[in-house]
Amino acid sequence: AQSVAQPEDQVNVAEGNPLTVKCTYSVSGNPYLFWYVQYPNRGLQFLLKYITGDNLVKGSYGFEAEFNKSQTSFHLKKPSALVSDSALYFCALRRSYNKLIFGAGTRLAVHP
Amino acid sequence: GAVVSQHPSWVICKSGTSVKIECRSLDFQATTMFWYRQFPKQSLMLMATSNEGSKATYEQGVEKDKFLINHASLTLSTLTVTSAHPEDSSFYICSARDRRSVEFFGPGTRLTVL
């Protein structure tokens, strides 16, 4: 069965510090992996995806994620956090044209 | 590019009435659109997959007669909540998949049933 785990309900980071939001997955076969961000009362915004190719994927707003097959992880990172990065972040998994499977979400709080 | 709109952004209706929510891909064609429901502080729950020109595929536990989905064109899908009740109050989000296999999400519709 496919599943996505985001082990942290909330991540707190000081502005200017690097941030990491963790995601691990379970799937048979090759995964398509995505990160989305949701601001209050809004839909999800696409940040980045991994389908094939380089394990380090760069996305919107300075975010990047590293696909690690041996650890079945796809952690989201940013070198220097901004207060405006505070939001709810979702990791998602899909195989081929199947439906997206979402993690529970991680709330990122960046403090000035 | 890759913008998905939803209308209305919020709606309040009386119990027993029907509500239609529109989802449009503004700058790309989407053969597949999806409808999700999100409860407060929870992740998204997929309700159904909508394919242009064919019947929607509903997830287990979702009543297809209550949540009517129509995907009439490559840029428009509609969700109609029929005979709405207070327990149907929720945040409904649509998404559309583009040619690069990425799903882009609409801004969501807040439905409140009195």
Folded structure, characterized:
The complex is a heterodimer of chains A (112) and B (114). By secondary structure, chain A is mainly β. Chain A is built from no helices and twelve strands. In chain A, the strands form three sheets. In chain A, strands 2, 5, 6, 10, 11 and 12 form a six-stranded mixed beta sheet that branches. In chain A, a hairpin with a 5-residue loop joins β7 and β8. Chain A starts with a strand and ends with a strand. The relative contact order of chain A is 0.33. Chain B is mainly beta and 114 residues long. In chain B, 0% of the residues lie in helices and 54% in strands. Chain B contains no helices and eleven strands. In chain B, strands 2, 4, 5, 6, 9, 10 and 11 form a seven-stranded mixed beta sheet that branches. Chain B is globular, with a radius of gyration of 13 Å.
Give the secondary structure arrangement, pairings included.
The complex is a heterodimer of chains A (112) and B (114).
Chain A: E1 3-5, E2 10-14, E3 19-21, E4 24-26, E5 32-38, E6 44-50, E7 56-58, E8 64-68, E9 73-78, E10 87-94, E11 101-102, E12 106-111
Parallel strand pairs in A: 2-12
Antiparallel strand pairs in A: 1-4, 3-9, 5-6, 5-10, 7-8, 8-9, 10-11, 10-12
Chain B: E1 4-7, E2 10-13, E3 19-25, E4 32-38, E5 44-51, E6 57-58, E7 67-73, E8 76-81, E9 90-97, E10 103-105, E11 109-113
Parallel strand pairs in B: 2-11
Antiparallel strand pairs in B: 1-3, 3-8, 4-5, 4-9, 5-6, 7-8, 9-10, 9-11
The percent of residues in helical segments of chain B reads under 10%
**Relative strand content of chain B:** over 45%
Our Rg estimate of chain B from Cα atoms comes to 13 Å
Structural class determined from secondary elements of chain B: mainly beta
Mind describing the biggest β-sheet of chain A? 6 strands, mixed
Tally the beta strands of chain A.
12
Largest interface: A-B, 19 and 22 residues
- Mean pLDDT, all residues of chain A: 93
* Poorly predicted runs of chain B: none
- How many DSSP-defined strands of chain B? 11
Cα Rg of chain A = 13 Å
The major beta sheet of chain B can be summarized as: 7 strands, mixed
